[in-house]
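Q: what does this look like with 3-hydroxybutanoyl-coenzyme A bound?
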Amino acid sequence: MPIILPMDTHAMDLPEPRTGELEAAPDAHSAGRQQRFDRKMEDDRKIEPQDWMPDAYRKTLVRQISQHAHSEIIGMQPEGNWISRAPSLKRKAILLAKVQDEGGHGLYLYSAAETLGVSRDALLDALHSGKAKYSSIFNYPTPTWSDVGVIGWLVDGAAIMNQVPICRCSYGPYARAMIRICKEESFHQRQGFESLMTQMRGTAAQREMVQDAVNRWYWPVLAMFGPPDADSPNSAQGMRWGIKRISNDDLRQKFVDATVPQAKILGVNLPDADLKWNEQRQHYDYGAIDWDDFWAVVNGQGPCNKERLATRVKAHADGQWVRDAALAHARKQQARQLKEAA
Ligand code: 3HC
């Protein structure tokens, strides 16, 4: 039987309900559960775990939140690869903390998914068996130290762009988890930029190493926002339900617009010959994304998919004794409390 742990981190964050936000007691005039849910959507109010919700809404949330959680914990690997080789004590301490933060984000998100009635074991089984998706971006290699800085600057920068709107998601536990996560992600982005700035002020070889990493990560980061709106099967309903607030293409555009001036400050070139300010649109135009490559990576054919999954499965198996010990300790404590209470 799955052990249900209390969601204390989220419970602590629960805001005081405002007048009118409390669920109206069902009465003879109530128009039914679906209508109450629809009204909450229209009024942009939060759905909480104890509230009734349509199955499709619950399923969509489990899908998105669990994919997000998997991305966070798989996302520990590309940078974790550099912890033992960071160039200074300062950089090592920053990187250790950052990778640990990503693990923490995964845990908040699994907790949020559990409030929808799905067990963490089932979610992890889906990841380990290759059934569940996680972000395409974590299937690329990190051959140089500059890759770590570029992940901070571009990958975490894209993650923030996508995740800040999710702080306003209609599902309470997901929205609240995202508030903490976004605060940490913005530190991650800044440390990446600062690390790259230091390298750009170094030798010509260091500058080349940064440019090479930017060349390799830029396009996969643009694809990370997901398929174009016209080819995004989940977007329309996700927007209607207030789970998604800004579309894949609009987020991508916001990211490009924000990144161009940052690249100028850094002194790197973004590898897109079609990147150009469009006075009429008041946005940058950008080149075509290779969607075939994106789907190949999503479907398991990226440069590191197999390695990432194998590492994750091994880490889970290696950690079995820790989970066993924690459960044995919890059972002992519970037995002691029951004995004392008797
Ligand atoms: N990688 C892998 N799969 C992706 C993807 C990507 N970059 N973008 C889209 N997909 C998948 C979707 O999951 C969906 O698959 P499914 O229907 O089988 O579940 C399919 O492609 C179609 O895409 P849609 O646009 O219809 O899907 P969504 O409406 O769910 O939008 C999303 C995709 C924008 C990623 C959305 O799910 C989302 O905003 N998720 C929350 C944020 C998240 O998961 N970010 C992942 C990165 S986390 C991170 O970067 C950690 C940090 O530490 C750096």
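Residues 63-64, 67-68, 71-72, 75, 102, 133, 135-136, 155-156, 159, 162-163, 224, 226-227, 232-235, 238, 244, 248, 298 surround 3-hydroxybutanoyl-coenzyme A (CB under 6 Å). The two ends are 25 Å apart (CA to CA).
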